Amino acid sequence: MFKPANRFGFLGRGVLLGVVLLLGLAGISAADCPNRGNLDVRYCDADGDLVADTPADKSQLLNPDTLVFSYTPVEDPSVYENVFEEFMDYMAAKTGKKVKWYGAESYAAQVEAMRSGRLHVAGISTGPTVFGVNLAGYVPIAIMGKEDGTFGYKLQLITHKTSDIKKIEDLKGRNIAHVTPSSNSGNQAPRALFTAKGVKPDVDYKVTYSGKHDNSIMGVANKDYDAAPVASSVLERMVQKGVVNMDDLRVIWESRLFPTTSYGYVNNLDPALAAKVKEAFLTFDWKGTGLDKEFGKQADRFIPITFKEHWSDIRTIQEVNGVVYSQEALKGLKVKKKKKKKK
């Protein structure tokens, strides 16, 4: 969704990840772990909450002087660094740590960074949240919502206003933009829901991965794609900011509500520090902040969630699609940016 803010030596990510993967082979043995579920071999879920347990070995705990925070990949990372500035300052005050921003260029980069210990706290998009949980020990604890506890977004299927596409069946034979393989509303949900309606992606229409919801939306607006399934929350924000004109688009179908980006921390963060991070999310006052200005029409606070309960539908969709949480699957989260056409 954006150009990376390359501040933490990520040019060597491939080499570092290779070392990490070798180390991961010496994960928790089956004998030592009574339950693992879909978690990678290095993690265990003895309490059955579907997320990685905190390591019992204190030498494996992280208590860094600087916490690295990342928000789900977006078109312009510098803008969202400003959006989260007050929150990062608040988290620094609550934890007594410095807090630095990492602008990930892809969902895979976020998961890899957390898996390797370079990313400690993050907001991870709906579909990739499951990859983060299973491959990187990510523990989701909050979501943007409102005082009454409501939250969520819809999958919206959009096309250009001049298009003759009126319904899902009309996608047949067309060039349709999906976001990335791991994206819920941008790929996983459409594959499950559209197939149930008799239209199978990659069979009945050509799938082109755009890399980001922003790219899909702008691609439809510019007629680069015939249509695209996108997150309603992203479309709404782009319309509000004047990046795209809703008069140029038409929503031809939408789903029920899904959970939005989750927020949480890596499982081996020192428990006392993790508790302070959680407190920072759940006590932060949005009023007058960048978060309020950016997301205020959709949410006004962080509210508590659990992966086991609130991501149940997302896990079901991925199960229907045969998603496997592996390093090979993680590579599929990396989508090259689509080159812009010369005018």
Task: Summarize the model shown.
The protein is α/β, with parallel strands linked by helices and 343 residues long. It has helices at 13-24, 77-83, 85-95, 107-115, 126-136, 184-196, 213-221, 232-240, 271-283, 290-295, 307-310, 312-320, 327-331, and strands at 66-71, 98-101, 121-124, 138-145, 153-160, 175-178, 206-209, 227-231, 249-258, 262-266, 301-304. The two termini are 22 Å apart.
Q: Mind explaining what this structure looks like?
A:
The protein is an alpha/beta fold and 343 residues long. The chain has two domains: 10-149 and 259-310, D-Maltodextrin-Binding Protein, domain 2, CATH 3.40.190; 153-258, D-Maltodextrin-Binding Protein, domain 2, CATH 3.40.190.10. The chain has helices at residues 13-24, 77-83, 85-95, 107-115, 126-136, 184-196, 213-221, 232-240, 271-283, 290-295, 307-310, 312-320, 327-331, and strands at 66-71, 98-101, 121-124, 138-145, 153-160, 175-178, 206-209, 227-231, 249-258, 262-266, 301-304. The chain has a six-stranded mixed sheet with strand order 2-1-3-10-4-11. Strand 6, helix 6 (184-196) and strand 7 form a beta-alpha-beta unit. The model is unreliable at 1-26 and 336-343 (pLDDT under 50).
